[in-house]
Write a structure and sequence with these properties.
CATH topology: Alpha-Beta Plaits
Order of helices and strands: HEHEHEEEE
Structural class: alpha+beta
Radius of gyration: 15 Å
Number of strands: 6
Largest sheet: 4 strands, antiparallel
Distance between the termini: 33 Å
Strand content: 35-45%
Number of helices: 3
CATH architecture: 2-Layer Sandwich
Length: 98
């Protein structure tokens, strides 16, 4: 698999109350990923970028919300979210703590 492609798969972590609970309780981390990424690409990208071992990946397509801008009705873009479960004993530190 192309390493350059893997570097573009992950857009960033999803930081929310639900994702924090998933990380604390289930060892799952939530990422915003490109819309055409496969589960295998997502798993390999996480392993490459964070030097961890991935157990499984679950993917969710999020539909963009309809929003009003004054008199006009607009729509936010659709996006894709991935729940990545790490193997036991693995952890990702987003804070980069010292």
């Amino acid at each position: 698999m192309n390493q350059e492609r893997l570097m573009k798969v992950l857009m960033g972590p999803v930081v929310s109350e639900k994702s924090t609970l998933a990380a604390d309780n289930g060892g799952q981390f939530v990422f915003r990923v490109s819309t055409d990424a496969t589960k295998r690409e997502i798993g390999r990208a996480v392993e490459l970028m964070f030097d961890v071992q991935v157990d499984n990946v679950q993917v969710l397509n999020v539909k963009g919300k309809r929003k009003r801008f004054g008199a006009r009705v607009g729509r936010r873009p659709d996006w894709r979210k991935a729940y990545v479960r790490l193997k036991p004993g693995q952890d990702i530190d987003f804070g980069g703590g010292a």
